[in-house]
Amino acid sequence: MSTPAPRSSSVRPVIFPVFIPVDGVELEGDFYLPGQAKGVVIFAHGSGSSRYSPRNRVVADILHDQGVGTLLMDLLTLAEEASDRETGRYRFDIPQLARRLTAIRDWVARSYGDLNLGYFGASTGGAAALIAAAAQPDRIAAVVSRGGRPDLASAFLPKVKAPSLLIVGEKDTLVLAWNRQALQQLNAASQLRIVRGATHLFEEPGALQQVATLAADWFERHFASPNAREGATR
After folding, report:
1. CB 48 within 8 Å of CB 72
2. Which CATH number fits the domain 15-232, given the four candidates 3.30.1600.10, 3.30.479.10, 1.10.220.30, 3.40.50.1820?
């Protein structure tokens, strides 16, 4: 396991690779921690994606501008990713991805116990983020799902205490229907936001920037909540 870098009030952000042992394997990630960070958002990427996802990097950059740290993790090893490309064995094993997310969350909490923590999930990673939030209902301040698959986490949605923001493209019709159904099972603080004219990958001009702004505002609001810090340190 890599040694966490010390927190600092310097204007220069701290960025470093991390290697976290989970399930008998070592997962790789990129940790970006601004000085006096308001909290840390752990990213759960969708199937076929990784911590190098340009879409999630756009969101992460906006979060950095708001003073929020990010941990972009690969939830699969290189060998698992290679196997998944051939067999599809891992991409829909949402419970395993969720278990790994909770272990990563615990690693961050042990290293930085005074920070608020949240999840940002994309596609199938959205389902993993919601299941992980349900597994530790008092330890996650907020969740954001981008084009997520909450239908794959339907049995767990009533157990999610964290305010959850579901962001879906207007033209991503099937996923939008699944998210509308999911919202009915989530807590009253949760919301669905539709990006007009956008498809599943938010490739339309300005669409991804809308996602990033919505996510940043959501985490900033809920990281400032009086209950957020209490839950993050448990």
Report:
1. no
2. 3.40.50.1820
User: What per-residue confidence (pLDDT) applies to 81?
Assistant: 80
- Specify the amino acid at residue 147: G
- The 8-class DSSP code of residue 5 comes to P
Residues in CB range of 100: below 8 A, 6 or more apart: 22, 23, 27, 75
Q: What tens digit of pLDDT does each residue of 131-165 get? A: 999 999 999 999 999 999 999 999 999 999 999 99
Sheet with 25-33, side-by-side order of all strands = 14-22, 25-33, 69-73, 39-44, 116-122, 142-146, 164-169, 191-195
Question: Max alpha carbon distance in the chain (Å)?
Answer: 47
Angle in degrees, CA 21, 24, 30, rounded to 5 = 30
Task: Provide the residue ranges of all domains of the chain, joining segments of one domain with +.
Answer: 15-232
11 pLDDT band, cuts 50/70/90, is very low
